[in-house]
Amino acid sequence: MMRMISALGVSALFALMLIGCSLHENDDSNHESLTANASQVANSTPAFEAYQQDPNPTTAFNYLFDVATHPRCVNCHGVIEDGAHRPTVGDNKTPHPMNITSLNNLKMAVQDGKFVQVGETHPVNCRGCHQDENAREPGRPPGAANDLMPGFVWHMPPPTMIIGNDMTPSKLCNNWLNPRLNSFLAQRGGRDDMKTFKKEFEHHVSDDPLVRWAWNPGPGRTPAPGTHAQFAKAMSVWINGGAPCPTES
């Protein structure tokens, strides 16, 4: 973890944090409709349109993959660079300002059914800039929170959930169904425990404020394909159809 720094160092770091906050990339899904047409969606894609026209496990997963590999999701899942897990920002997935890495990220765990911060508290973490709602000006920090998952604040997933440029539909599907790779907050089940997997993944994509944020990312950011409501529905269509994984082409 980070070394102890002097009071002067803390002051300088916070000053840098305040500057960097203006460079970054919520939960408000009332405008969404389960019957939204592709033509009405701000960021429609062929995979979303195919799912809309024929919702089945195959088209549903193709749409899920479209969302998962979109910059709104990929940026937060991060990359490994210089030995550190770090997020990226923007549609071009550029390095996060202020050299933010897992070393100054919130560490979360589940205790008594609630998400809590664990480990050391550092001068700079995601919560230092990313609050409960988006900033109103383009380029300033986004934020997300809701009452569905109280206390769930902006943070990075574990490195096992990185969605790299080489991610294929087959690999993502099998990663999701592998309980060693699909979470670090709670057991989400997998191929050998589909009952838990269905419960946890449907809850995750339906209620997690960071997932829902992808369709309400604030000014100047391209939303994820489709709508949040259709994304959550597609997850159920895929799981209820047996969660089939595509084969490598």
Automatic annotation (TrEMBL):
Its domain of life reads Bacteria
Q: Where is the signal peptide?
A: 1-25
SUPFAM superfamilies, per this entry?
Multiheme cytochromes (SSF48695)
Q: Which UniProt keywords are present, listed alphabetically? A: Signal
Report the protein name in the record: Cytochrome c domain-containing protein
Q: Which organism is it from?
A: Alteromonas portus
